Each structure stands twice: as structure tokens, then as C-alpha cells.
Amino acid sequence: MDKNIKVGMADYKVASGEEVLITLGLGSCVGVIIYDSSKKIAGMAHIMLPSSLEIKNNSNKMKFADTCIDLMMDELLKLKVSKTSLKAKIAGGAQMFSVSLNTESLNIGKRNVIAVKEKLKSLNIPIIAEDVLGNHGRTIKFDCNNQQLNIKSIGKGEHII
Amino acid sequence: MDFSMDNINGLYLDVLKEIGNIGSGNAATSLSKMINKSVNMEVPNIEVIETEKVVEIFEDEEEITVGVYINFNGDINGTILTLLDKASSDNLVRILFGKKPESDIYNEIESSVIQELGNIMSSGYVTSISMMTSLNINISVPAVNIDMVSSILSVPAVEYGLESDKLILIENKLEIDDEKIKCYFFFMPDLTSFDTLFRSLGVLGNG
Predict the structure, then answer these.
(1) Cβ of A30 under 8 Å from any chain B Cβ?
(2) What is the predicted pLDDT for the residue at B176?
(3) Measured CA distances, A157 to A90, A97, A139, B65, B98 (Å)
(4) Active-site residue among A29, A32, A69, A116?
(5) Which chain B residue is nearest to residue A49, measuring alpha carbons?
(6) Touching check for B5 and chain A: CB below 8 Å?
């Protein structure tokens, strides 16, 4: 059985034990991992946009920081994680291109990071480690077993947070 | 009737195909003049896809690609993304600059060569649309980045995600066989601009 579980854009997955959660080539999106280290249960969300409240077309709840994290939390709680021992790691939120005409929307990476941090704060989940912003893409892998988040970027190699 | 993602049909798709054809034809001519080689062009591919799926259109989401990104604005607004796989981009740098890039990440000169190439091709694309429709369109200074293809494609996905669940992708492929160069063009007007485009071409009435 493949222990790698891929998380696509505007999606989330939960995993446990020996499983590894993966998102390939995060750009301005943010990857959020919420985990319970004693139970080795984790969820990874691939957040596309900061807020479901700012947008008319918000039918896909998994696009947004606020609603996607809520959905993932529901699923984690069903697996009987301990709410008070949850921790988070986040990565992504890059600004891939700086183009003069439409800077506001292009800086959505930063807005995604801010929105994710606010949401985690409201849930009282501490952020243990982060690798955010910059202008490069990231492939992230979270190992449920040791709770290490491996981050790979072009020209920068791999590192673990 | 206003145009929307829900009533896009064969006629609209044919018109978009023609727009893509003319735009990329002009871009191909610009490229051909620049490198003094003949450029092949494929019939454009029009796809209406969910915004979040655009990052998965390439088989290998981690493939290193070179993206040149421009915004256009005026009577219509949107973006053009020119995408080259790394080998194609390296070949173009070699043809234009006389020397193959030595590392994965381009230095300033190599990067500006590709930036200029994206600029000329995108201008060619936009100019032909502007002439065909009599619409006034300006383009921004292009931005270049070398990275994994899905992280580059996340930029249009996120931009369109702000206004719609779907994205109309007008995709073109240019090829130069003997140099093994493949170049993709993504022309992505925003939603209200489609309305303007169709009206200017007489496809939508003024009612």
C-alpha cells in the first residue's frame, strides 16, 4: 500500500501512523498541517484563498483558509485527537511574480499566510514551525510518524522544519 | 443575454479558438523573426476547467519550467502566461544570447533575455487581438520566474479563484523541431472581459 497521500489544491486529507501527507509545488497557496503528536494523527490542508467571506463564488469551502481548516478540524476531532495537544506547521504563501499592474491580487500569498495564522490563533493551535513567503515554490511532505515537515524548493535543496 | 461560464457553448468556444489562433499566430511570427527559424503552431486548445485543477494540467507537477507573466488592461483585463520547459528555455537563451545557461537559476542577463522574449510574444498576441476587435489593450512589464510548474500555475488559479470557480484556458503550443523547443501560451482574460470580447466581435448582441 502506498503510504504517500497526495493533497491537491483546495483540498485536505487526514492521515496517521506511517503515512506521509504530500503537496507538490505550492506557490502562493499555503499548506497547513495540524497534528496530534502522541496519537500520530495529522491533517494537511492546501489553502488557495484567505477568506470565504470576501468572495461571492464561495461554494467550494475547501478553497478558503477559514472554511477549509474548519472542515479539517471536524474530521480530526472525529478521529479523537486531543484538542488541547494539537499543534501546527505551515509553509507556502510565496509571491511567484511581481507584476506592476495588479499587485494587490498577486500578493495573495501573504494574505493567505495572515489568514491561516489568524484562524489557527482563534482555534488556540500553536504554530511550531513555519517556512512562508519568499518568491519560490515548495513541495512539502509531512511524516505522521515523526511529525517532520520536509520542504523542497528549486535551487535551495531540502530542509526539515 | 450576458455571457457567463454557465452558458458557454460551441459558438463561443469557436470564437475563442479563433482568437487563440490569431494571437498565437502573431506571437509565433514575432518569435520566428527574433530567432530566424520557422515556428510550428498547433490548433489552440480551449478548456473550461475548475480553477484549482489548472495546477495539474502538466503530468509532472514538479517539472522545472520558466514562466513569463504579464498583465494586460484597458478595455479588457487579464493575464498571459508564457510557459517553457527548462530545456526549451535553455535552448532559446543559447540561440538568442549565444551561450547556454550554466546553472538552474538564470543570471540577470539570461533572465532578461527570456523576459524580453515573453514581452515580444505577448505583445504580438495582444496586438493582433486589439486589431481584430478594435479594443484598447495595454500590457505590463513581464515578470519571470523559474520554478515548479504547479507553483507557477497557482498564480492564475488563485487570481481566477477570487472571482470564479472556473477558468477558461486558451492554450497554445508553439514548436521549433530542430531546436527541440516547446512553448505554451495561456491567454486568460477575466470574466467580464469575455463579454467585452464577444460584443466587440459581434457574437453577443447589444440588448
Answers:
(1) no
(2) 83
(3) 18, 21, 11, 17, 29
(4) A29
(5) B158
(6) no
Q: What pLDDT does residue A43 have? A: 96
Least confident of A7-11, B53-57, B70-74: B53-57
Q: Is A144 a catalytic residue?
A: no
Which residue range(s) make up the domain with A24? 4-160
Would an 8 Å CB–CB cutoff place A140 in contact with chain B?
Answer: no
Here the CATH number for the domain that contains residue B151 is 3.40.1550.10
Q: HSE, CB side, 13 Å, CA atoms: give it for residue A140.
A: 33
Question: In this prediction, does ipTM exceed 0.95?
Answer: no
Domain residues for the domain of B104 are 5-200
Query: Contact B141/A100 with Cβ under 8 angstroms?
Result: yes
User: CB distance from B164 to chain A under 8 Å?
Assistant: yes
Give the residue ranges of DSSP H helices in chain B.
Answer: 10-35, 86-97, 108-133, 149-161, 191-200
Q: Which of B51, B52, B71 sits opposite A102 (nearest CB)?
A: B71
pLDDT tens, residue by residue, B82-139? 898 888 899 889 888 888 888 878 888 888 988 888 888 888 888 888 998 999 999 8
Q: Do A106 and B159 touch (CB under 8 A)?
A: yes
- CATH no. for residue A124? 3.30.1330.200
Report the SS3 class of residue B144: strand
Instruction: Measure Cα distances from B59 to A139, A147, B116, B154, B156 in Å.
Output: 16, 29, 28, 15, 18
Q: Is residue B89 part of a domain?
A: yes
